[in-house]
């Protein structure tokens, strides 16, 4: 009876909202989001369907759990969703007014995206600075070889973080953080920044009550962003100084950005450049390394997949040949393995957008203005109506299909889709394939003593990205 009363009053207030669990006064459905919202919302969508309405405190939230509905938001009506939700943490030091990741779609955002696309992540640009990433593979090889000689297990996620962090920093500004001894420090700050951005303060949802003081979160975010900006400032200063004294030009992105900002200040200010670097590192490092960790986890859980991949990698890349980015296209099984990891363990389980302007009708449901949209790609990746045997790791499902991760196939969009699709995708794609190919080409891998393939833990923790709760340790063996 109580339930009926609730659903009647709900219908009276907003007849055409998509279905969803009844929101409690004030807190809305916040308790139903739980510790792992991607999982709780997947369960709820089985009851309420692929377009679901909940209230996150005071925020109308629409959860999308099918490729058809995702297409409506990301492509058909994308003009209506130009915003991302900003929180107290992402507004610290005004990051959101300069950041490509948080700016609404508009001229400033378009300009930054154009710079990313044309000057940083174009095929030509990435080809020109591939050597900078290759150096990092050598460092990885040395490290794993040391572990191999000493019979030590490698913390795969950690090794991948150091490699992707240094590959990104080498690509962006030819700085090898290991040389500056700041890799660990930078990694810690990036992690802290991700943590604080990835766990919104309750005040973000109940701001109107004024009960929750976001000062602590804001201070932490200010510290992290401030520290990153200071590191980038000193790197830029050093480069400007060095170019005054030398004619030799680097091939990295900083050189291009300095050229652009020197030639036309209006196109890119130094402040924008520094905030762009914050975005590139925070958005790029853990997502890339997390993917590598999930791939190796699944390879160790599925020895037959590991054998098949090993065979392909070692046949195509003869002994001692250093894997190059142009080799990726010759490794179809590797590509399938990585697509399968993206399907089952998307580093960003939600693609987020915010509604601007008036209410909008989609499939006869009302999407209220200012609504937060969560596209649950973790749910679509495990939907048995889309993927036969979704809980089994089967790269073969991607052999002989045209499905890719570039945003056209809405059932597999680990990098998002539409105008806001991840601009770093071309770099991320190269880094993930290179690192995995390299680890498999040069080493056999086994689990630590006493752990069977089926025992490998698959628990997930959601921050700004979705990562393994217990880091994967694997023992390298010389083949
Ligand atoms: C496997 C690695 C990665 C994954 C899975 C990933 C995934 C994503 C996703 C899902 C989005 C949101 C897209 C959307 O809203 O439609 C995004 C945005 C973004 N990513 Fe990535 N990313 C990865 C690596 C990188 C790298 C290496 C960089 C740069 C070095 C990067 C920079 C960005 C930026 C700047 C945005 C914000 C774009 C905007 O809002 O306009 N990402 N990424």
Automatic annotation (TrEMBL):
Subcellular location: Membrane
Record-listed heme binding positions: 422
Classification via SUPFAM superfamilies: Cytochrome P450
Cofactor(s) named in the record: heme
One GO cellular component, as annotated: membrane
Presence of the UniProt keyword Translocase in the record: no
InterPro entries, A to Z: Cyt_P450, Cyt_P450_CS, Cyt_P450_E_grp-I, Cyt_P450_sf
Main location: membrane
Membrane topology field: Single-pass membrane protein
CDD domains: CYP76-like
Keyword Glycosyltransferase: no
Top-rank lineage group of the source organism: Eukaryota
GO molecular function: heme binding; iron ion binding; monooxygenase activity; oxidoreductase activity, acting on paired donors, with incorporation or reduction of molecular oxygen
Pfam families: p450 (PF00067)
UniProt keyword terms in alphabetical order: Heme, Iron, Membrane, Metal-binding, Monooxygenase, Oxidoreductase, Signal, Transmembrane, Transmembrane helix
UniProt family annotation: Belongs to the cytochrome P450 family.
Record-linked PANTHER family: CYTOCHROME P450, FAMILY 76, SUBFAMILY C, POLYPEPTIDE 5-RELATED, GERANIOL 8-HYDROXYLASE-LIKE
Protein's name according to its UniProt entry: Ferruginol synthase-like
Species of the source: Sesamum indicum
């Amino acid at each position: 009876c109580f339930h009926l009363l609730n659903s009647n009053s709900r219908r009276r207030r907003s007849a055409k909202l998509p279905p969803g669990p009844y929101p409690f006064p004030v807190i809305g459905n916040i308790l139903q989001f739980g510790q792992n919202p991607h999982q709780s919302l997947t369960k709820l969508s089985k009851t309420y369907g692929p377009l679901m309405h909940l209230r996150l405190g005071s925020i109308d939230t629409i959860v999308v759990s099918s490729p058809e509905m995702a297409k409506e938001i990301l492509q058909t009506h994308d003009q209506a969703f130009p915003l991302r939700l900003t929180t107290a943490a992402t507004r610290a030091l005004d990051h959101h007014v300069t950041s490509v990741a948080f700016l609404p779609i508009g001229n400033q955002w378009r300009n930054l995206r154009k710079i990313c696309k044309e000057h940083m992540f174009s095929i030509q640009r990435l080809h020109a600075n591939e050597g900078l990433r290759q150096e990092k593979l050598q460092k990885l090889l040395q490290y794993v070889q040391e572990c191999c000689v000493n019979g030590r297990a490698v913390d795969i996620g950690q090794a991948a973080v150091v490699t992707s962090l240094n590959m990104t920093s080498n690509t962006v500004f030819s700085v090898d953080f290991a040389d500056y001894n700041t890799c660990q420090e930078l990694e810690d700050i990036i992690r802290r920044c991700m943590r604080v951005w990835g766990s919104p303060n309750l005040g973000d949802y109940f701001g109107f009550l004024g009960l929750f003081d976001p000062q602590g979160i804001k201070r932490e975010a200010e510290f992290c962003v401030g520290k990153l900006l200071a590191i980038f400032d000193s790197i830029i200063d050093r480069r400007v100084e060095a170019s005054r004294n030398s004619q030799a030009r680097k091939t990295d992105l900083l050189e291009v950005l300095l050229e652009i900002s020197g030639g036309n200040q209006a196109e890119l200010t130094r402040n924008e450049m520094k905030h762009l670097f914050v975005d590139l590192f925070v958005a790029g490092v853990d997502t890339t390394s997390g993917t590598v960790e999930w791939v190796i986890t699944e390879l160790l859980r599925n020895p037959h997949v590991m054998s098949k991949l090993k065979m392909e990698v070692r046949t195509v890349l003869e002994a001692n040949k250093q894997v190059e980015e142009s080799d990726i296209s010759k490794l179809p099984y590797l590509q399938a393995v990585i697509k399968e990891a993206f399907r089952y363990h998307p580093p960003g389980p939600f693609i987020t957008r915010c509604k601007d302007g008036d209410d909008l009708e989609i499939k006869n449901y009302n999407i209220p203005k200012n609504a937060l949209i969560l596209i649950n790609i973790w749910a679509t990746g495990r939907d048995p109506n889309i993927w036969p045997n979704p809980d089994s790791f089967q790269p073969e499902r991607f052999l002989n299909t045209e499905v890719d991760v570039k945003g056209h196939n809405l059932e597999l969009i680990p990098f998002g889709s539409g105008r806001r699709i991840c601009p770093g995708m071309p770099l991320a794609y190269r880094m993930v394939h290179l690192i995995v190919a390299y680890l498999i080409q040069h080493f056999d891998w086994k689990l630590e003593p006493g752990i069977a393939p089926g025992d490998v833990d698959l628990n997930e923790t959601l921050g700004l990205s979705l990562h393994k709760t217990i880091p994967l340790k694997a023992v390298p063996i010389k083949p």
